[in-house]
């Protein structure tokens, strides 16, 4: 039964509702079960304190709601800023060109290469973590622009060629206030992928030497012959980091962030473990020691998606090369 509890220096007393003012220097509280332990205080009304506290909480809530600082509102604003739609570039000629805005689809994680503007990394320049996510809609966090690294590289046209140095640039959005470039570096005690501990891959806010990449033909046995040829749009490729010689990869390693469960991106050479008989081929004169005949695993294979080729677009007709883990 709901009653008032009067706590005085002489002990506790029960009084019915309406008679709570007969005791001086008392603390009054309402309870439905038992008698709570309340230290005696002078003329302090528990119910009035609760009401004042509720009013303070309500004012604080309304203020945060108006300024957009609520946790739910802030997360919604972050998602809206990161998922703004962007148009992919069409490739009517069937080849990748510099200036094209493309997406990179991993054959292993089935996710698209994406930047997280709310997961910064400590580098010499501002940097942010990359993951592969299931969002297949072109947006500011998963669309990259192909940029030419050197205009004196020996190629006269604007097509991207196998073995040519390129940079992959992401445009500013949210916390990323300047153009950022696909970046990697050697593994150190302070720089490594969060879970696999392979080479860390980020986007860096400066076009340094560690942001240079090469698009390679995925079949190692035909790579030498394909060197210098234009890269077909929507075709599977391998991205090699120029400075370290490692390969861009994404495996099914869960990476939870603001956008849900995504997968880690790193650099590592996922070659097959079978014997390739290199010495026999060198003895016959078919190959040299410069040829690497081990096949790439699926974590190293990516599809470059444009508006007209790749996922949901036209097919290049080129089969995906076999890959062994």
Give an overview in words.
The protein is an alpha+beta fold. Helices cover 14% and strands 29% of the residues. The protein contains four helices and 16 strands. The strands form two sheets. Strands 5, 6, 7, 8, 9, 10, 11, 12, 13, 14, 15 and 16 form a twelve-stranded antiparallel sheet that branches. Strands 2-1-3-4 form a four-stranded mixed sheet. The longest helix is centred in the first third of the chain and has 22 residues, at 46-67. It is elongated. 33% of the residues are buried. Mean pLDDT is 81; it is low at 1-33 and 315-325.
**Main sheet summary:** 12 strands, antiparallel
Structural category is alpha+beta
Strand count: 16
Helix content: 10-25%
Q: Cα-atom Rg, whole angstroms?
A: 31 Å
Q: How confident overall, as mean pLDDT?
A: 81
The dominant shape is: elongated
Strand content: 25-35%
Low-confidence stretches: 1-33, 315-325
Cα-to-Cα separation, first versus last residue: 70 Å
The SSE order reads EEEEHHEEEEEEEEHEEEHE
User: Number of helical segments?
Assistant: 4
């Amino acid at each position: 039964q709901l009653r008032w509890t009067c706590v005085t220096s002489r002990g506790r007393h029960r009084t019915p509702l309406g008679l709570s003012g007969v005791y001086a220097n008392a603390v009054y509280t309402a309870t439905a079960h038992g008698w709570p332990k309340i230290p005696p205080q002078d003329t302090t009304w528990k119910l009035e304190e609760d009401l004042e506290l509720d009013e303070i909480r309500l004012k604080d809530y309304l203020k945060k709601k108006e300024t957009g600082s609520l946790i739910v509102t802030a997360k919604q604003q972050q998602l809206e800023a990161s998922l703004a739609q962007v148009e992919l570039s069409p490739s009517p000629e069937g080849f990748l060109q510099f200036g094209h805005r493309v997406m990179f689809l991993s054959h292993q994680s089935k996710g698209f290469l994406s930047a997280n503007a709310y997961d910064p990394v400590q580098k010499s320049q501002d940097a942010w973590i990359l993951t592969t996510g299931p969002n297949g809609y072109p947006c500011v966090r998963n669309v990259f622009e192909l940029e030419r690294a050197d205009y004196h590289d020996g190629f006269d046209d604007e097509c991207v060629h196998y073995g040519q140095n390129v940079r992959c640039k992401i445009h500013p959005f949210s916390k990323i206030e300047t153009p950022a470039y696909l970046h990697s570096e050697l593994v150190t005690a302070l720089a490594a992928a969060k879970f696999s501990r392979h080479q860390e891959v980020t986007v860096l806010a400066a076009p340094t030497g560690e942001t240079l990449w090469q698009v390679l033909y995925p079949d190692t046995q035909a790579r030498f012959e394909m060197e210098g040829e234009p890269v077909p749009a929507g075709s599977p490729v391998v991205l090699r980091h120029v400075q370290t010689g490692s390969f861009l990869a994404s495996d099914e390693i869960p990476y939870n962030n603001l956008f849900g469960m995504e997968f880690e991106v790193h650099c590592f050479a996922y070659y097959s473990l079978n014997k390739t008989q290199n010495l026999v081929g060198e003895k016959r004169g078919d190959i040299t020691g410069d040829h690497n005949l081990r096949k790439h695993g699926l974590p190293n294979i990516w599809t470059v998606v444009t508006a007209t080729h790749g996922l949901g677009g036209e097919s290049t007709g080129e089969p995906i090369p076999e890959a062994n883990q």
